[in-house]
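Researcher: Can you fold this with zinc ion in place?
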Amino acid sequence: MAHQPERPKEYVCENCNNIVAGVVDGEPPDHTYQPPRDCRACGNSEFVELDRYPSTPQQ
Ligand SMILES: [Zn+2]
């Protein structure tokens, strides 16, 4: 059986740039990922989705 593990959505802390896996909300197949309540590293509660996180500026 080829079970494909789902990669959790990841979020980036806007304060310290720590990457945190999202929290699962709901049951499969309708579950979604929510940003963590706060950053374990710095306590900040503002996160941006990793997919939307801007790449490092070139200059
Ligand atoms: Zn943080």
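Model: Folded with zinc ion in place. Residues 13, 15-16, 18, 39, 41-42, 44 surround zinc ion (CB under 6 Å).
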